[in-house]
Specification:
The structure holds two protein chains of two kinds. By secondary structure, chain A is of the alpha/beta class. Chain A contains 28 helices and 36 strands. Chain A has a seven-stranded mixed sheet with strand order 5-4-16-15-14-6-7, sandwiched between helices. In chain A, 56% of the residues are buried. By secondary structure, chain B is mainly α. Classes of the chains: A alpha/beta, B mainly alpha.
């Protein structure tokens, strides 16, 4: 039987066949979800965003465009080893972002990748992951991905493209590739680097350019080892934020940040403009606009050289004293958006603190192509005849003064390869769909030099090609598949064919290759001390600060609805961005939250709503890039319109003008961020207690009889000292539990569906607030208020203490949500789950029900994972071991802030954590007896500072 | 029996049945009916849209998972209470003045409960499985969860509807017989005859009828107190600040009668003017109804005072914040509206001039109804907007469909009422006759 012969495609008469054909055409034209009720509640925009080209998606998925091999479906005669229907398998592979490799394990259910986790054996992830790694799954299945090779917008084929490029090869050969340019983002894959250099050597006149709007190459690239750090000073460095080795840094930092370390707990000073995740974890945070950071760095350097120089500035004096007292355990980190001078100063300080080599290692930059500005200059000069864009979207994400689209119009042959038919694809003569990293063969190099293989978990869903395949075609190796390319590239790394085969298989299995023979070279010597005063530091006007969006980065994730709807750190904004400004500056300019302002910078301007952000530095405005994409309608503004190529991260000279538009309503998921005297986050400061801590005696006495707990009694402890507020838990939960996306309008109505949320609170004065994160899943209360009020017993307790939702029984009175003091219950007010896109059906976790409209849902502690572990344990007649069950949130958390286990097991980690003096229950006074509890947020401030 | 009494009885029968049988269709009635019917169609559209899209067409969200539907439910159930109060409690207390208005107010009760009954069903996420709320024998041996006040609600409201309907119908039977006897056309006679269930005015009929009425009045009387007490437990049982309060049952019952009498006056004042019934529904009725409103209004005001005092006296962080938020927070307008209408305006009823002036009384009654609806909004919605964790706080914004459903439910109510006025005797003929016979004249 043919693989795609389903009952609906069977026909008996020719008339019936014809009518089915018409039906199919209608479906292709009016695809599911392509039009919606035009009403203010409509999910139209969201659907557009998820599936801008859904009509093509349906056509592609339903009929002709996918490569559907004519295969026989026959039952297994012999069951393949390890393949058990209904039991997931895990495969190791690697993901790459911003030139960095992340080792991952991918769960595969019946051949469909359904969840991404960190690979415990990989140095960059160590079993942990990040929002982007989690959300990459949705991109794989996104119906809006590009499906076809296109030539001038019309559908074409790979073979047509090959015909064109083959026709051009003789000329390239004769001219040495004059006029041939390649533009990439930061390249990590060693094989791709090899291919590029082969192409460049084949065509000596060809040039390679690199443009990565989210991950600029730092002036002095470094690797951090923070586990042993005692004092860290960050100069606008968000080492816990997206990109780079953030997963590893976060894990190291959290290990150094435990209150149980008492006096040796790390202390963090942060100097930055807009509060980053790093800044929120700081004990002392100095809001400073970026232009003044160089000046500050100089003062710091001066004060370190002669401590009396810093007496004027008590903050600086105390920080300097702390740094010098902890020589060899203190480090100064400069941010990637800072100018080379700041990096040079930081490096000089680190060398004087003897931190280099232990806490921080400076590395040589990866081989790098020419800049985008050079390319645009050549394009405008007419020197570029053929431009190959491998990934990337420069029409959108390049500085406005370059006017890339105008330059692109002068290039006769332009080829764009990308996951989406984006702004650049629309303007290029050719477009080739790119394969997702879960669909292709490739390789990666981790920061320590260890190699990993990227292996496909699924055949390409659309007619995509990998960058390797495209480059091979340009090199004339048409016949090579991605598999051959990578195998061929790896073969020379091993001595003989036998050792190769075994080593290849082992690397494929482990996800990471043998330890590197040699680490990547470290940078040799410290560069000269920076010179020249920065003029911007004295400028009195407002400073523009451009930064990649924490979730969308430079817009490369803008099509990903999980990331669009994931509340951003601090503001909890979804689907849009804002012009962030400090309370003092807002007061000085007379601005209110949501005021629509025209931002004029140099000779360009754009209109953006103001968000007054406590803790933001005065006299500057931070804009996040990545929003306002043309084909992802209605979400924010495009800050690239203010970007200039000479100062891509902003500069002084920004002016604000009022517009006539009324105040903007932000789609935020948390409108109130003060604690209102309720102290949901307990805050302690061991720094002020001289390294010791004494906490008020805990009051968990009750007059009621204790609740009898049967083993296993599942419980969770969340360590607020570790949580950096990155929201990886939220996306991991969304991926694991088939949680739908609701769209901006529904978020505005307060109907987001995340089972796990990360609350942010401010404490203290608005100009210098303590910024606190609190992940809130279901508390699984022993005296659950939701259970008594449900009229149909749709929410009940099970024997292991889980508070369950029985979706089939729920009639949707929503009484449980009203009575939940933690408000962790989520209701399907409308039919949120997209059950019509066939691709999304492949993505879902088969162990978790898809909820229909009108039922309540909430965190289950990943009950499907508990069941799987229970089955395994029962087969072996043993209790479930501690650590055998890890909910998705805990597994994703880069800092291991979430611990899950059996409360009644005296050996379990949760049992021990519950004994901690920092342990507390949220709203304990309500006597709900929650199973999810917290460890206080513990700060380690410098007692010498106010 | 004096002949004049018999003549008067005939005159009453003729006059009241004539309102239905001989009165021509007037333009005013047609216009009013058309308007009400248009709103009923709006309700239909709103319900259809709700069933197509889901409960998300309303403004409900998390944390405010209960919105207009519950506000409207409590408000309509409350309005119904006046009818039962008049027909049952006043009957047992031998308050003869009730006679001329009890039929009308009983009808009002049934229509109000019908409107109220819609809302809990529509408000469900999956209304098609509403029967999970009922204790029916199912194969999984599942019963409702008896600890939930919503289950108590189901029983309280359905009992109330059934008893009210029975009470109304039993009272209506002799009058349907009068209609049958006065009707000219055969099919009209037949129709009323079916409703009269073969009533022949025999002494035995009257005897049984009297007993049945008394028994049902005895049954209905506790319902006046129990239904709204149970409804109030939906809130009292929950832990939400602003809901979790033991004074709710008496305070809700008083509020129900308060708003019910306001509705009675809102309806009776125009009806008696239009149909020339000033001699039947006299100023004494208005005065008495206003006195009931004044006294229940004072109980409600005492409830408010107690609630606010307790929030201070308890020294509870959440309760204290709640009261502060209601008085000065984002939705403080609602609190002030409630206080002005229910506490302020109601004090006008101390004055006899207001109580006997139909225009002033009508305005007062309308304001009190607005106030009582707002009070339910205050309790249901503003409490949910600010509960325990500030991170979850969010505001409720009603959508077009929220308002359409509220307006549509009024459309349903008035459509039924207009039909009632045209099709059934709106004043109890037999009771009026009885009074005439017993006391010579209906009391002024």
């Amino acid at each position: 039987m043919n693989a795609n012969l389903t009952s609906s495609s069977q026909w008996r008469t020719l008339d019936e066949f014809a009518s089915q054909q018409q039906q199919r055409e209608r479906e292709a034209e009016f695809a599911a979800g392509a039009f919606e009720w035009p009403d203010d509640l409509s999910r139209r925009r969201f659907i557009k965003l998820m599936a801008g080209t859904l009509a093509m998606a349906a056509a592609g998925a339903g009929t002709s465009c996918t490569r559907q091999p004519a295969e026989e479906i026959v039952p297994y005669v012999r069951q393949p080893e390890d393949l058990m229907p209904g039991r997931p398998q895990y495969f190791a592979t690697s993901a790459e972002m911003g030139g960095e490799a992340y080792g991952i394990l991918v769960r595969s259910d019946s051949g469909r990748p359904t969840k991404i986790e960190g690979n415990p054996d990989h140095p960059a992830t160590a079993g942990r992951s990040s929002v982007h790694l989690q959300a990459a799954l949705l991109t794989l299945y996104d119906p809006a991905r590009s499906h076809n090779v296109r030539h001038k917008g019309a559908e074409s084929t790979w073979e047509d493209l090959l015909g064109t490029t083959t026709g051009m090869t003789p000329r390239w050969k004769s001219t040495g590739g004059t006029g041939l340019r390649i533009l990439t983002r930061r390249v990590n894959s060693p094989t791709l680097q090899e291919q590029i250099s082969r192409l460049l050597s084949q065509y000596p006149q060809a040039r390679w350019h690199e443009h990565d709007a989210a991950f600029p190459a730092a002036a002095q690239p470094y690797t951090l080892h923070l586990e042993k750090a005692r004092v860290i000073l960050s100069l606008d460095a968000d080492f816990l934020g997206p990109g780079g080795l953030h997963v590893r840094n976060a894990a190291d930092f959290a290990r150094a940040r435990q209150p149980s370390l008492l006096g040796s707990m790390v202390r963090l000073y942060a100097v930055e403009s807009m509060p980053t995740m790093t800044g929120t974890m700081a004990d002392h945070r100095l809001p400073l606009r970026p232009g003044k950071i160089l000046q500050f760095a100089r003062q710091l350097q001066g004060a370190l050289a002669s401590p009396e120089a810093a007496v004027k500035n008590p903050w600086l004096a105390a920080a300097v004293k702390d740094l010098t007292e902890h020589r060899e355990a203190s480090v100064v980190i400069a941010g990637e958006h800072q100018p080379p001078d700041v990096h040079a100063i930081a490096r000089a300080i680190n060398e004087s603190l003897s931190a280099v080599g232990t806490l921080i290692e400076y590395t040589t930059p990866q081989p790098q192509g020419g800049s985008l500005a050079e390319l645009v200059r050549a394009m405008n000069d007419g020197a570029v005849e053929s431009l190959i864009i491998l990934g990337g979207n420069p029409v959108y994400d390049s500085p406005a003064d370059l006017d890339f689209s105008k330059a692109l119009a002068r290039v006769p042959f332009s080829l764009h390869q990308g996951l989406y038919h984006d702004e650049t694809a629309a303007l290029c003569t050719w477009h080739v769909p790119e394969t997702h990293f879960l669909e292709m063969w490739s390789d990666t190099r981790a920061f320590d030099g260890s190699l990993g293989i990227v292996q496909p978990l699924i055949a390409p869903l659309y007619s995509g090609r990998s960058a390797h395949e495209l480059l091979a075609a340009l090199l004339g190796e048409y016949q090579l598949s991605g598999y051959d390319i990578i195998r061929n590239a790896w073969r020379p790394r091993y001595a003989t064919a036998e050792t190769f085969e075994a080593a290849w298989r082992k690397t494929l299995h482990d996800g990471t290759g043998p330890a590197p023979q040699q680490r990547p070279p470290l940078a040799a010597s410290a560069p000269a001390t920076a010179d020249g005063a920065s003029p911007s530091a004295q400028d009195a006007s407002l400073e523009l600060v451009l930064r990649p969006d924490p979730h969308l980065l430079d817009g490369r994730w803008a099509e990903n609805a999980w990331l669009q709807e994931l509340p951003k750190p601090l503001t909890k904004l979804t689907w849009e961005n804002a012009a962030h400004i400090s309370p003092a500056t807002a007061a000085r300019l007379g601005l209110v939250q949501g005021a629509m302002m025209e931002l004029a910078y140099r000779d360009r301007s754009l209109t953006a709503p103001v968000w007054i952000l406590p803790g933001h530095a005065d006299d500057c405005v931070t804009l996040h890039l990545g929003h306002g994409r043309a084909n992802t309608e209605g979400s924010g503004f495009n800050a690239f319109l203010l970007q200039t190529s000479d100062a891509p991260w902003g500069g002084t000279g920004l002016t604000l003008r009022r517009t006539k538009r009324g105040p903007h309503i932000f789609s935020t998921t948390q409108e109130h961020q003060r604690m209102e005297g309720r102290d949901p986050v307990h805050l302690a400061d061991i720094g002020k207690m001289g390294g010791q801590y004494e906490l008020p005696p805990r009051e968990d006495e009750t007059l009621y009889p204790p609740v009898e707990k049967k083993r296993p009694a599942w419980g969770m402890v969340i360590n607020l000292s570790s949580c950096i507020g990155c929201s990886a838990c939220t996306v991991a939960c969304q991926a694991e539990n088939n949680i739908p996306v609701v769209g901006r309008e529904q978020v505005l109505r307060g109907r987001e569906m995340h089972w796990m949320r990360v609350d942010t609170y401010y404490a203290g004065p608005p100009e210098k607030p303590a910024i606190l994160h609190q992940p809130v899943p279901c508390m699984h209360c022993e005296n659950a208020p939701c259970e008594v009020v449900c009229p149909v017993a749709a929410t009940v307790h099970d024997h292991e203490g889980l508070n369950l939702m029985v979706y089939n029984r729920c009639i949707g009175t929503r009484y449980c949500s009203n009575n939940c003091p933690y408000k962790v219950r989520r209701f399907n007010f409308l039919a949120y789950e997209d059950i019509r896109s066939p691709q999304l059906a492949l993505m879902r976790n088969p162990s978790v029900s898809v909820r229909m409209r009108g039922v309540m849902e909430k965190c289950t502690y990943c009950t499907q994972r508990i069941s799987a572990a229970r089955i395994e344990a029962e087969k072996e007649s043993r209790p479930i071991r501690d650590g055998e069950v890890t909910p998705a949130c805990a597994q994703a958390c880069p800092t291991a802030a979430i611990t899950f286990g059996d409360l009644e097991d005296p050996q379990s980690r949760v049992h021990a954590l519950r004994k901690s003096p920092h342990h507390y229950a949220l709203l304990a006074e309500l006597n709900t007896r929650p199973r999810t509890t917290y460890l206080s947020r513990v700060q380690n401030s410098n007692p010498e500072m106010a | 029996m004096e002949s004049s009494a018999a003549e008067k009885c005939d005159e009453i029968s003729n006059r009241i049945s004539g309102l239905v049988l001989r009165e021509p269709l007037r333009r005013g009635w047609l216009g009013g009916f058309a308007l009400a019917f248009a709103f009923l169609m709006l309700l239909n559209a709103a319900i259809l849209w709700l069933l197509i899209r889901g409960v998300g067409v309303w403004g409900v969200n998390v944390p405010v998972a209960w919105g207009f539907a519950i506000v409207n439910f409590v408000w309509w159930v409350g309005i119904g209470h006046a009818g039962t109060f008049i027909s049952a409690i006043l009957l047992l207390l031998h308050q003869q003045w009730r006679t001329s208005i009890n039929r009308f107010t009983e009808a009002m009760t049934i229509f109000a409960v019908a409107c109220a009954g819609l809302f809990p069903l529509l408000h469900l996420g999956r209304p098609w499985v509403f029967y999970f709320l009922l204790p029916y024998p199912d194969t999984m041996d599942l019963w409702p969860q008896w600890r939930s006040p919503l289950v108590w609600d189901v029983f309280a409201v359905t009992t109330y509807l059934i008893v009210s309907l029975l009470f109304w119908f039993i009272g209506l039977m002799p009058d349907l017989a009068v209609m049958r006897d006065h009707a000219k056309r055969l099919w009209v006679r037949r129709l009323y005859g079916i409703g009269a269930l073969g009533w022949r005015n025999s002494a035995r009929h009257w005897n049984r009828h009297e007993t049945a009425c008394l028994l049902l009045a005895g049954l209905a009387t506790p319902l006046v107190l129990s239904v709204h007490s149970v409804v109030s437990l939906d809130f009292s049982v929950a832990i939400v600040p602003g809901w979790h309060s033991t004074i709710f049952p008496p305070y809700f019952v008083a509020g129900a009668i308060f708003s019910g009498f306001a509705m009675v006056l809102t309806l009776l004042i125009p009806v008696r003017a239009i149909y020339g019934l000033r001699d039947v529904i006299t100023e004494r009725h208005l005065d008495n109804a206003a006195k009931v409103m004044l006294s229940t209004g004072l109980i409600v005001a005492l409830g408010y005072a107690t609630e606010h005092w307790m929030s201070w006296y308890s020294d509870d962080l959440y309760e204290g914040f709640l009261v502060h938020n209601r008085m000065a927070g984002a939705a403080s307008g609602v609190w002030w509206l409630v206080m002005i209408c229910n506490v302020g305006v109601a004090q006008a009823l101390w004055f006899r001039r207001v109580r006997t002036s139909p225009v002033l009384l009508f305005i007062t009654a309308c304001l009190i109804q607005v106030g009582m609806w707002s009070e339910r909004y205050l309790i249901v919605i503003t409490s949910l907007e600010r509960d325990f964790l500030p991170s979850s706080w969010a505001d409720f914004h009603a959508t077009f469909w929220d308002w359409a459903t509220l307006a549509g439910s009024m459309g349903l109510f008035f459509t039924l009422l207009f039909l009632f006025i045209r099709l059934l005797p709106m004043i109890a003929i037999h009771e009026m006759r009885k009074e005439t016979v017993q006391e010579g004249e209906p009391q002024p």
